[in-house]
Design goal:
Layout (H helix, E strand, L loop, with lengths): L1 H24 L1 H9 L3 H24 L12 H15 L6 H13 L4 H30 L4 H26 L1 H11 L5 H15 L5 H28 L6 H16 L9 H12 L4 H28 L3 H4 L1
Helix pairs in contact: 1-12, 1-13, 2-13, 3-4, 3-10, 3-13, 4-5, 4-13, 5-6, 6-7, 6-9, 6-10, 6-11, 7-8, 8-9, 10-11, 10-13, 11-12, 12-13
Length: 320
C-alpha cells in the first residue's frame, strides 16, 4: 500500500512543482515565448539529437567489451535494447527507469546479470563524469551570475564528483573493490548477495579495458557538449540573449538535476532548475521555463525511435 502511495505521490509532486514554477513565470508569457519560437533553430537542435543518440548507442555497445566475444549479443540486438530502454525510460523515474529496462533487456539476451548491470552502471558513471568535466570547464569560463550562484554550482559539481570518484575506485583500485565485496557479503538476502558479488567481479573487469573506457568517456563528453549546444539552439529560437559560454556553465548542472530519480523524465525539477539558474544570469523566468519545456520535449523526440522498435517487436535473434 505504501509503495503504491509513493508511486502516486512522486509524479503528483513533480506536476505540482511544474505548476508552481509555471505560475511564478506567468503562463501567458510562457505561451507567448513558445509561440514565437524560431522553428529553424529548433530544427538545428533536433538534428544534433541524432548525433548524440548515435554516440550514446556506441557507448552502450562498447561497454560490453569485457564479455567474451563468442557470447556477446549481436550489435543490432544491442542497438534495439538501447533505443527501447530510452523510450520506456521516458515514462519511468529519470535515469533509473531506463537503466533498469536496459539491464533487464541485456539479461534476456543471456548476458550475465552482473555484467549487464555493470555495463549500465559504468555507462551512468561515465556520463556523470563527462557532465562534471564539461560543467567545470564551463563554470571556469562562463562568468555565471552572482557569487551565490557560482558557489551553488561549484558545490553541486564537487558532490557529484565525490560520488563518481568513489565508484571509480571500485573499478581501478583492488583495495576498494575488496572492501565493496566484503560489504556485499554482509547483505542478509542471499539473492542480493549473489548479484552484488557478480556485479563486483564484472565491474572490476573494466580495469583490463581502459582503452575502451577512455573512448567511451570521450564519447560521453561529446554527448554533453551536444546537449549544451542543443539548449543554446533552443535558447536562440526563443530569442534569449545569452552567450554559448553561459550555457556551458549552467546546462551541465541542470542535467545532473534531471538525473535525480525523483520525477518522471525530469519533469518538475528540470523546470525549476532552468528558471532558477538562468534567472541568476538575468534571463526572464518565462523564457527560461519555455526553454526547459523545449529541452525536455527534444529529449522525448530523441527517444521516439525506441517506441517504433518496441512496436515492431524483438528481432529473430533476440527471440531465440
Amino acid at each position: 500500500m505504501l509503495r503504491l502511495i509513493g508511486r502516486f505521490l512522486r509524479p503528483a509532486a513533480a506536476l505540482a512543482l511544474t505548476a508552481y514554477v509555471l505560475w511564478r513565470a506567468n503562463p501567458g508569457a510562457v505561451l507567448a515565448a513558445m509561440a514565437s519560437a524560431d522553428p529553424a533553430w529548433i530544427g538545428a537542435a533536433a538534428a544534433l539529437v541524432l548525433v548524440d543518440r548515435t554516440l550514446m548507442a556506441y557507448r552502450a555497445i562498447a561497454l560490453l567489451r569485457p564479455i567474451d566475444a563468442a557470447s556477446r549479443p549481436l550489435v543490432r540486438d544491442l542497438v534495439r535494447i538501447f533505443f527501447v530502454s530510452t523510450f520506456v525510460g521516458t515514462f519511468l523515474p529519470a535515469s533509473v527507469g531506463g537503466d533498469a529496462v536496459r539491464a533487464y533487456g541485456l539479461s534476456r539476451l543471456r548476458v550475465p546479470a552482473g555484467a549487464a548491470v555493470a555495463s549500465v552502471l559504468m555507462d551512468r558513471l561515465l556520463g556523470v563524469v563527462s557532465i562534471l568535466l564539461v560543467g567545470l570547464v564551463g563554470l571556469a569560463t562562463s562568468g555565471v551570475g552572482d557569487t551565490a550562484s557560482t558557489r551553488a554550482i561549484g558545490v553541486s559539481l564537487l558532490l557529484a564528483g565525490a560520488v563518481s570518484l568513489g565508484a571509480s575506485l571500485v573499478v581501478f583500485s583492488e583495495r576498494a573493490a575488496a572492501l565493496a565485496h566484503a560489504l556485499v557479503l554482509r547483505v542478509p538476502v542471499a539473492a542480493l548477495r549473489r548479484i552484488g558479488a557478480d556485479l563486483a567481479v564484472a565491474t572490476r573487469a573494466y580495469d583490463r579495458h581502459r582503452g575502451e573506457l577512455a573512448l567511451v568517456l570521450a564519447g560521453s563528453i561529446g554527448v554533453q557538449i551536444l546537449r549544451v549546444v542543443q539548449a543554446y539552439c533552443l535558447g536562440r529560437s526563443l530569442q534569449i540573449d545569452a552567450q554559448l559560454a553561459l550555457y556551458f556553465g549552467l546546462v551541465p548542472l541542470i542535467l545532473l538535476v534531471m538525473l535525480l530519480p525523483v520525477s518522471i523524465n525530469g519533469i518538475g525539477p528540470s523546470q525549476a532548475a532552468f528558471v532558477w539558474f538562468f534567472g541568476r544570469a538575468g534571463v526572464h523566468a518565462a523564457d527560461a521555463f519555455a526553454l526547459s519545456v523545449l529541452f525536455v520535449a527534444l529529449g522525448i523526440v530523441g527517444n521516439l525511435p525506441g517506441g517504433w522498435l518496441y512496436a515492431m517487436g524483438p528481432s529473430r535473434g533476440a527471440r531465440r
